[in-house]
Amino acid sequence: MYHKIARKLQQQQDDSLPQQLTPEVLEKMRTLQEILEYHINILQIPKSEIHPGLKDKLPSYERRILIFVNSNRSIRQRGLN
User: Fold this and answer.
1) Is 81 helix (H, G, I), strand (E, B) or coil?
2) Which of 26, 47, 56, 73 sits between 20 and 30 A of 15, alpha carbons compared?
3) Which of 16, 35, 15, 19 is nearest to 27 (CA)?
4) What was the pLDDT predicted at 22?
5) What is each CA distance from 52 to 45, 56, 58, 70, in whole angstroms?
6) Rounded (5°) CA angle 76-65-44
7) What residue spans carry the Low complexity bias annotation (predicted)?
8) C-alpha neighbours within 13 Å on the C-beta side of residue 45
9) How many domains does the chain have?
10) Quick check: is 29 in a domain?
11) What is the pTM of this model?
């Protein structure tokens, strides 16, 4: 999902696409990219380096990640039908 968004944003910057996205859509994509980057960084923290404050927030991060994954699945499934 992250790479797909990054690729679309890069294509927009290259101006190689005849169809330009609206500024609102671009901003939403950038925001989503930042959120995904944040969660990817959280997932890359070694287990031995997770401090108690972060450990308390892990269930919340897990829910957010699952929401992203499930929403992406439902979008793909609708596209296949």
Assistant:
1) coil
2) 73
3) 35
4) 82
5) 13, 6, 10, 28
6) 120
7) 9-21
8) 13
9) 1
10) yes
11) 0.67
The C-alpha atoms of residue 10 and residue 13 are separated, in whole angstroms, by 5
For residue 80 the two structure tokens come to 């296949």
Phi, psi of 51 (to 5 degrees): -85, 165
Q: Could you tell me which residue, 1 or 31, shows the higher pLDDT?
A: 31
Domain assignment present for 73: yes
**Which residue's entry shows tokens 């992203």?**
68
**Structural domain includes residue 3:** no
Higher-pLDDT residue of 38 and 72 is: 38
Domain that holds residue 33: 22-78
DSSP summary character for residue 50: -
How many residues make up the chain in this entry?
81
d(CA 53, CA 60): 12
What is the CA angle 13-15-17, rounded to 5? 115
- Number of C-alpha atoms within 13 angstroms, CB side, residue 34? 6
